[in-house]
Write a sequence for this structure.
């Protein structure tokens, strides 16, 4: 039997490109007070939008700080760079976050793509994208087993070795969810089908529906119900009753982060107008909407996102 239809959820991805912990701390607290379902940040060591020299805070410690100023929203990286850490360490960090937050952690993982930060800090970028995705697959498999309470007596894999590995204490959640970010059709979506509880992507409606079709085929090959996997869609949005003002604010925020590109997928306008544009994605199964939010972390957008959720839930 397929799971019941998922409720519409909405969250924010707070870019950590800031020198100010109080600024991003207060944005997370505001999102939690507003009733948003999830709060996320990046896992990068250099800025990835605009000049790389811009200040950027580290992801896991940012989540740990947020766990103490929020009470209801789930917390996660969008997404954790698998190249940065051994999967055993990652599982321990996710478990500790689950305890700090009272059972609100999500383990977001991806293959990693930003070569510059690996070169800067001497982190192995492996031989290429394919090898990084193979390492991701092995890491996610091990992470799922450890999070589920398995004692891995011996693992001699292509990338990782474990000997009598165990995750104690167990997470607060009976099943701490793993989210995979990325849409590679041959490897990333196969890993998602095998192990993930959630998947994040972006793009036009046609693009995400096509990606979803590939994921469903991988699920069929693996003998898994594809509706067990929550779909998250990342969008860029600014909420204002005046769409011209929303567009102006988005441009201002982009300039503050060192770039000026626009995108036809930008959602600028009233909650009703934004919900109308998101409706086809929700109908296609992407029921968890994630809004990119860069400094200075627009308060009106954060506080009015529940209006969009309520409209989409009708």
């Amino acid at each position: 039997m397929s799971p019941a239809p998922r409720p519409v959820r909405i969250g924010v991805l707070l870019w950590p490109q800031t020198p100010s912990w109080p600024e991003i701390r207060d944005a997370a607290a505001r999102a939690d007070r507003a009733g948003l379902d999830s709060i996320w940040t990046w896992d990068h060591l250099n800025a990835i939008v605009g000049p790389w020299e811009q200040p950027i805070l580290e992801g896991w410690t940012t989540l740990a700080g947020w766990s103490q100023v929020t009470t209801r929203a789930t917390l996660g990286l969008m997404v954790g760079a698998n190249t940065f850490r051994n999967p055993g360490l990652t599982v321990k960090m996710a478990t500790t976050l689950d305890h700090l937050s009272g059972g609100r952690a999500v383990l977001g993982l991806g293959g990693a793509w930003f070569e510059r930060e690996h070169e800067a800090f001497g982190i192995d970028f492996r031989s290429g994208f394919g090898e990084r995705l193979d390492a991701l697959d092995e890491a996610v498999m091990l992470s799922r087993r450890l999070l589920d309470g398995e004692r891995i007596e011996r693992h001699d894999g292509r990338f990782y070795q474990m000997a009598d590995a165990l995750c104690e204490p167990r997470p607060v959640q009976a099943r701490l969810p793993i989210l995979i970010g990325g849409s590679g059709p041959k490897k990333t979506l196969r890993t998602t089908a095998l192990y993930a509880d959630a998947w994040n992507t972006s793009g036009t409606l046609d693009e995400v529906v096509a990606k979803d079709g590939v994921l469903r085929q991988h699920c069929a090959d693996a003998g898994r119900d594809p509706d067990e996997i929550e779909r998250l869609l990342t969008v860029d949005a600014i909420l204002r009753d005046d769409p011209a003002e929303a567009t102006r604010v988005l441009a201002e925020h982009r300039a503050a982060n060192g770039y000026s590109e626009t995108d036809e997928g930008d959602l600028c306008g009233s909650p009703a107008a934004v919900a109308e544009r998101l409706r086809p994605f929700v109908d296609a199964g992407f029921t968890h909407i994630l809004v990119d939010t860069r400094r200075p972390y627009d308060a009106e957008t954060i506080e009015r996102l529940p209006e969009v959720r309520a409209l989409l839930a009708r």
In short: The chain has ten helices and twelve strands. The first strand starts at residue 9 and ends at 14. The chain has a mean pLDDT of 96.
